[in-house]
Amino acid sequence: MSELVVIGAGAFGTALAVAMSRDGTRVSLWGRDVGSMAAMRASRINPRLPNVKLPDEINVTSDLSDIGKTGPILIATPMQTLHNMLDQIDDPLAGRPVIACCKGIDLKTHQGPSKLISNAKPDAIAAVLTGPSFAADIARGLPTALTLACADEGVGLALQHQLSKPMLRLYLSGDVIGAELGGALKNVIAIAAGACIGSGLGESARAALMTRGLAEMLRFSNHFGAQTQTMMGLSGFGDLALTCTSNQSRNFQFGAALGRAEAFDKSVTVEGVATAQAVVEIANETGLDMPISHAVCDISRGNASVSEALQSLLARPLKKE
User: Fold this and answer.
1) Catalytic residue among 115, 186, 266, 320
2) Whether residue 165 lies in the annotated active site
3) What does pTM read for this prediction?
4) What confidence tens digit (pLDDT) does each residue in 19-57 have?
5) Cβ distance 127 to 114 under 8 Å?
């Protein structure tokens, strides 16, 4: 069977499969839609990455039995579907690394992806792959650096060497909570940054928003035991910088559409919307001060306009930085 499995045949999952197969590694790329996967298997093209041909080393499948019994599993499904995806895998996955490549906080449980994996498959080894990256860049073989977080250092080192490729450099971390919270929270701030630019508030306002957003990310993650250095690395600041400044970011695009008072394609997954709601619910329970997250939650749900949210932020008491 395959040496490596990627579950989730969207743009990012496909890009990871392409990157992992470039050195001859055999990869199974699983997607839920039988028809779409059959078409992809025949054409060797994913319509979401139309300029990238799938190498022969990739086995395109809609059969979960193709995940085999050995080797790492990378899960690149949307965060809010991760729980159900794990339930569909009958194998207990004992001793196998299961690497979450999704970013967010589960709305039902308020848990991150590593905790969902550990709960659903307690005999598996949960890890997280996250950081500043766009699917198109990875698929094209452009230089990309990511954080691989795993609590088991030995397994983490082995995965780092197995999954790193010439143009895909992985940095190892033992701070799983920090890595996954960085990837989740930056999406919330990216929506705010998009709204800032979309409504014409300017670059200076975006810079201020990103800075204060990073302060929120640190406040929230430190409360749950994450290390500050993790949030200042690739999975925190690095990912924040990318998603708040590039129109390739779906979260930024969504925020920009809100800022322009335009409709946004509902078929596009915007992880930051659910994450903002989860963060606000957690903040209300813990007393954490998360004003930007509250504002994003309000404008995403139509409870406030961008201008109203801005006025609410600007009206906050002056304080020390």
Assistant:
1) 186
2) no
3) 0.96
4) 999 999 999 999 999 999 999 999 999 999 999 999 999
5) yes
